[in-house]
Amino acid sequence: MNVRTCRKSEIAQHLEEDWVDKTRRVFVEGDIAYIPVREGFPFDEVLAERTPYVGRGYQKMGDTILIHGDAPDDSELAEILTFEHPSCVLHSTGQTGVMRIPEIRVLYGTPHEVTFREAGISYTLDPSRVMFSQGNRGEKLRIRSLVQPGEKIADMFAGIGYFTLSAALAGGNVHAMEINPESFAFLEKNIAANYLGRNVTAECGDCREKLRGTYDRILMGHFDAIDFLPHALAHAKAGTILHVHGVGERQSEVEDAVSSAGFRYTISEYKVKKYASRTWHCVWDVKLV
Question: Could you tell me which residue, 153 or 48, shows the higher pLDDT?
């Protein structure tokens, strides 16, 4: 495998460059990173091919590994440490409350802020303090493809910028609301880091109290979003599109809420990711007519 070398701290600044072979993983040893190079581009050295990783799944954010589900046993943890050489490994057992506070156990190292890129967007967060779902990557890209420049958009559960940044990058004017002060601090940092301040107005607080006026599009990226529909619909009009997240078979509840508010509508369901056996994280796109 052809590679270029750099310091581990410099990985993020190189990953979007043309010469990077994105079909292969970056290899880190100590403070040195070996970044795979595409055929035809200059390289520093050749590494022997690595044995593919076949262990349990995990989420990687910068130099931190986040494991979901059951806690790994000692052999599973050792395999991940050997393959990834992370500075920190965390075990997530879920999240609590409307603030989506992660329940975290430290398995290795010391939790800290990480910065990484996903689909052209830079994110900074401390995964031990705030949540980040990489499983929503496809949905973020879908939202980016739907937003039209100049749209007035409400993101009722902005978090650290999951959908806010994608919508703003597409040219939307986003009113981003986040109730968790820690998530909000990272949201502001991520807006600035991606140079999207002209497209985003961010407010810390309860979205039910922060919504104002009417919007062209309303993003509701929270599993309890259906409970907030009456508040969202009070700031909607004919032509408004709502993206309502939830878990399981809940489309009829969305339809009941929209009908009760006096709107006619069309609705489409999109499956984001498997949440549990036979249960999906879904998004219902509701267009008011």
Answer: 153
CA atoms of 182 and 161, how far apart (whole Å): 12
**Other C-beta atoms within 10 Å of 168: how many?**
26
Q: DSSP letters of 69-80?
A: SSPP-HHHHHHH
**Phi, psi (deg, nearest 5) at residue 266:** -120, 150
- Tokens, residue 84: 């990834």
Residue-wise pLDDT for 113-158, tens only, equals 999 988 889 999 999 999 887 668 899 999 999 999 999 999 999 9
Residue 203 identity (one-letter amino acid): E
For the chain, which domains are there?
1-50 (no CATH), 53-112 (3.30.300.110), 134-288 (3.40.50.150)
Read off the pLDDT of residues 221-273 as tens digits, 9 standing for 90 and up: 999 999 999 999 999 999 999 999 999 999 999 999 999 999 999 999 999 98
Strand positions, DSSP E, 37-149: 45-46, 59-61, 64-68, 88-96, 101-109, 114-118, 121-125
End-to-end CA gap in the chain: 55
Token duo for residue 50: 């690595």
Read off the DSSP letter of residue 221: -
d(CA 165, CA 92) in angstroms, rounded, equals: 25
Evaluate whether 153 touches 175 at the Cβ level (below 8 Å): yes
Q: Tell me the pLDDT tens digit for each residue of 66-92.
A: 998 899 999 999 999 988 889 999 999
255: tokens are 């339809």
Spatial separation of the C-alpha atoms in residues 88 and 28, rounded to whole Å:
14
Element housing 27 (H / E): strand 27-29
Query: pLDDT for 190-216, tens place per residue?
Result: 999 999 999 999 999 999 999 999 999
Nearest to 287 by CA among 225, 244, 227: 244
